[in-house]
Amino acid sequence: MTTSRLVADLEPPYYTAVFTSLRPDNPEGYAETSEHMQEIVKQIPGFLGYESARTPGGIGITVAYFRDEESLTAWRQNAEHQSAQRRGREQWYDAYSLHIGKVERSYSFERE
Known about the structure:
Layout: E1 14-22, H1 30-42, E2 47-54, E3 59-66, H2 69-77, H3 79-92, E4 95-103
Helix pairs in contact: 1-3
């Protein structure tokens, strides 16, 4: 799940969930679950988008953007998301960290 476009022009304040992980390439069942999680999170009111990248060495970073704490909480409490998190700890991830932040200032640039 690597994105090809940046999330830009969001009006602060909003919230970010920065998920950094270390996992082997293409563990069984991961890609399908990841695609399903992308579809589920898009249905949460207040979800604004995400950016994701992975290095060849297995380090991945996904930044998800949410309008408010309530939308972020709805994602955290989603039963299918919680099930995927358990599977990640049991099977897919060697390590991960999660950082939640409130964005108070934001700007972007795009070459024409």
